[in-house]
Amino acid sequence: MHVFVTGGTGHIGSYIIPELIAAGHEVTGLARSDESAAAVSALGAKVRRGDISDLDGLKAAAAESDGVIHVAHRQDLLPSGGIDAVAAAELQIMLAYGEALAGTGKPLVASGSIGSPTNVGWPAPRAHFLGRPATEEDPALPPGGDEHKGSLRVRNIVELTVVGLAERGVRSSIVRIPTIAHSSTDNAGFLPLLIGLAKEKGVIGYPGDGANLWPAVHGRDLASLFRLALEKGPAGKYWHGLEGEGIRFREIAEAIGSHLGLPAVSIPADVLMLPGYFGFLANLVTLDLPASNLITRRTLGWEPAQPSLLADLDNGHYFPAG
Predict the structure, then answer these.
(1) In a domain, 189, yes or no
(2) Percent helix / strand / coil, the chain, rounded to 5
(3) Which of 66, 140, 282, 306 has the fewest beta carbons closer than 10 A?
(4) What is the Cα–Cα distance from 114 to 116, expressed in whole angstroms?
(5) Does residue 274 contact residue 282 with C-beta atoms inside 8 Å?
(6) Domain range holding 33?
(7) Which of 9-18, 20-29, 114-123 is least confident?
């Protein structure tokens, strides 16, 4: 299969490209700069120069391929327009893919969020508590009205649109990515941020009693899930890329603290104390996102095989000497 990949030089994309090539697929990766082009080429893929803001270019690339994996994001819009601008731009990208792939039965696999069925913890009213682990059969909540502007719930329109493309003859699906995607090449995810905060503050904090669950997955395992969804995933489905139902935030903090030689302490979960320690992460660290991957494993035959989050922390690469 000839696969067009966006975001191929990012943390997850840089695992997806080699995963596809090892499985016998031919890969073309989108690259905006010379540096990105060199990185895509080094991973073994062909290079297509362009940018995800060029919708005509994306449509052409999709039409020329046998399938698309999209893990790029319009993060460049965050400073000026926030998550609302990002969601609006990414919606147009998915609609462009829909135009190119409609009626072909070709696969489109895009990234989503494990929080989309609940959006619990985001700065938006009327959080939707499931009262159980989220499953692949739980749809993303609709983005809602003005009361949800500025919250990640507005991006749910992207997931809903991708899944809806199944009705137009696209074998579309969403891989929901957990809060933490970890690996030896993770240098900008939540773990490095939490470790950096601990070094700055002299303690590693957790919100309240720290019993809230954060799901996680290894980057290599996530890459294999994207490949399986591409190869044999039915249309209009959500897949859960996580290694278990979740890990208590307190356990993550304690593991980080043990490696840094710092105490793990409770940060009172109120509007003053949480931002005082966590800063812009304050609305994220209170997330409680238990979720199941049973349907994903049974349907696609996916089994996480890489080290778990706590084992990966024990491997030491997050804590280089000196």
Answers:
(1) no
(2) 45, 20, 40
(3) 66
(4) 6
(5) yes
(6) 2-182+216-245+291-305
(7) 114-123
- Is 58 within 8 Å of 92 (Cβ atoms)? no
pLDDT digits (tens, 9 = 90+) for 227-284: 999 999 999 999 999 999 999 999 999 999 999 999 999 999 888 899 999 998 888 8
Closest-CA residue to 12 (of 197, 227, 171, 196) = 227
Q: In this structure, are residues 27 and 235 in contact, taking their beta carbons and an 8 Å threshold?
A: no
Distance CA 104, CA 124 (A): 38
Q: Do 128 and 120 form a contact (C-beta atoms < 8 A)?
A: yes
Q: What is the distance between the alpha carbons of residues 175 and 163, in angstroms, rounded to a whole number?
A: 11
How many other CB atoms are found less than 10 A from the CB of residue 295?
15
Question: Six-digit token pair at 275?
Answer: 């931002």
- Residue 173 in tokens: 């699906």
In a domain, 279, yes or no: no
CA pseudo-torsion sign 306, 310, 313, 315:
negative
Residue pair 226/16 in contact (Cβ under 8 Å)? The answer is yes
Q: What's this model's pTM, rounded to 2 decimal places? A: 0.94
Helix (H) / strand (E) element for 175: namely: strand 171-177
Is residue 312 included in any domain, yes or no?
no
Q: Which class for 120: exposed (0-12), middle (13-18), buried (19 or more C-beta within 10 A)?
A: middle
Q: CB–CB of 57/49 below 8 Å?
A: no
Cβ atoms of 175 and 233 within 8 Å: the answer is no
Whether residue 237 is contained in a domain is answered as yes
* Overall domain count for the chain: 1
Say which CATH number the domain at 118 has: 3.40.50.720
